[in-house]
Specification:
The protein is α/β, with parallel strands linked by helices. The protein has 2 domains: 3-208, P-loop containing nucleotide triphosphate hydrolases (Rossmann fold), CATH 3.40.50; 213-371, P-loop containing nucleotide triphosphate hydrolases (Rossmann fold), CATH 3.40.50.300. It is 39% helix and 17% strand. The chain has helices at residues 10-18, 26-37, 51-63, 83-97, 115-121, 132-140, 157-160, 166-175, 191-200, 213-216, 231-241, 254-266, 280-291, 325-332, 353-363, and strands at residues 41-44, 76-79, 106-109, 127-130, 151-155, 181-186, 205-208, 219-225, 247-250, 271-274, 297-300, 315-318, 342-348, 368-371. A 7-stranded parallel sheet has the order 3-4-2-5-6-1-7. The longest helix is centred in the N-terminal third of the chain and has 15 residues, at 83-97. The radius of gyration is 21 Å and the shape is globular.
């Protein structure tokens, strides 16, 4: 199947052709026609499966024929859990909108930066990509109005509808018109998400794309079993001995991320940290340099586990395991994307072994076990 069969306009097809997008992903094949019809959609597909373009393309087509009738009354609202994902979704909208004649203005808003430039920039916006807290601040300041929303998108919907965002999302839902198109996309479908979506979605088109085995096998998973106090030297040994050049390392806390970066830097390995305590400018700049290959190692919390697309990222390392098996899948899903192989390495201390067994059971996959007694990494 090609994009020409999905009902997209010639202008968007030209954009896709110029950018060498020739064959849609399965989630795009199913979602684009449904969205163009005006259906509500629940799309479940693994990370790196093209979910963002599956809603961006049809929404841009719908917007080609609409204009902002009242200033600061946006038409499309996309709600996301993190600042980084907000920026990334905006970039995808802009990437495809640049080639069509209708002027469509997309803006991303999030906390951690001054609200005043965002308030000014909201004039004439068609598509607003927002994190929940900053969106509510802008509404309270009357910088934006949600009464004319025709389409609501929840990206990483399982995260948006859990307890951490529940109160904010309920306040947002109360501000929206009851008659609207709802699009929910997620990499996983939990029982909580399934029950909540029945309240949000009206006769939805449910799309569930099961990852093929060969897609999962693109990620080569290995686990090194090591004493907790030796994780640091082992991490440095792996990076240096394997000459790893673009590595995303996950820790469980901001404190640990900074500590790991400090040790890597002292041992001559270029590293930076990204976590919630860093300013938005720093986070954006580090991520930009990392994508360009200018930073060798980025150590982060689960802030970067969801939705962040770093094409051809070769290696992910779990310095510490996440609490949830689902978050483990999101983490390692940063590699093995765009049909390119990648490595996912986990450092497993004795206290981690039981939890790691649960993770393997949940993903129905055994991870290669490597003992470290005979590895000579004491000097690293």
């Amino acid at each position: 199947m090609s994009f020409t069969t999905l009902g997209l306009s010639s202008a968007l097809l030209d954009v896709l052709s110029k950018k060498n997008y020739t064959k849609p992903y399965p989630i795009q094949e199913a979602a684009i026609p449904a969205i163009l019809k005006g259906d509500d959609v629940l799309g479940i597909a693994s990370t790196g499966s093209g979910k963002t373009a599956s809603f961006v393309l049809p929404l841009l087509q719908q917007l080609q024929h609409k204009r902002v009738e009242k200033n600061r009354h946006v038409t499309v609202l996309v709600v996301v859990p993190t600042r980084e994902l907000a920026v990334q979704v905006r970039e995808v909208f802009n990437e495809f909108a640049n080639g069509i004649s209708a002027p469509i203005k997309t803006m991303a808003v999030f906390g951690g930066v001054s609200i005043n430039p965002q308030m000014i920039g909201l004039q004439g916006v068609n598509v607003l990509v927002a994190t929940p807290g900053r969106l509510l601040e802008l509404v309270e300041s009357k910088a934006v109005h949600l009464s004319d929303i025709t389409t609501l998108v929840l990206d990483e919907a399982d995260k948006m509808l859990n307890l951490g965002f529940k109160d904010e999302m309920n306040r947002i839902f109360a501000l929206l018109p009851k008659k609207r198109q709802n699009l929910l996309f997620s990499a996983t479908l939990s029982d909580d998400l399934n029950s909540i979506t029945t309240l949000l979605l009206h006769n939805p088109k449910v799309i569930k794309i099961v990852a093929k085995e060969n897609t999962l096998s693109l990620i080569n998973q290995v686990a090194y079993f090591v004493e907790e106090e030796k994780k640091g030297p082992l991490l440095r040994y792996l990076i240096k001995s394997q000459d790893l050049q673009q590595v995303l390392v996950f820790t469980s806390s901001s404190y640990k991320a900074d500590a790991v970066v400090d040790k890597l830097s002292k041992h001559g390995i270029d590293a930076e940290a990204i976590h919630g305590k860093k300013s938005q400018w720093v986070r954006t700049e580090v991520l930009r340099q990392f994508k360009q290959g200018k930073v060798r190692v980025v150590v982060c919390t689960d802030l970067l586990a969801r939705g962040i697309d770093i094409e051809f990222l070769p290696c992910v390392i779990n310095y510490e395991l996440p609490r949830s098996p689902k978050d483990y899948i999101h983490r390692i899903g940063r590699t093995g994307r765009a049909e390119s192989p990648g490595d996912a390495i986990s450092l497993i201390a004795p206290d981690d072994e039981h939890h790691f067994k649960i993770i393997q059971k949940k993903m129905r996959r055994q991870v290669e076990r490597i003992e470290t007694e005979n590895l000579k990494f004491s000097g690293y």
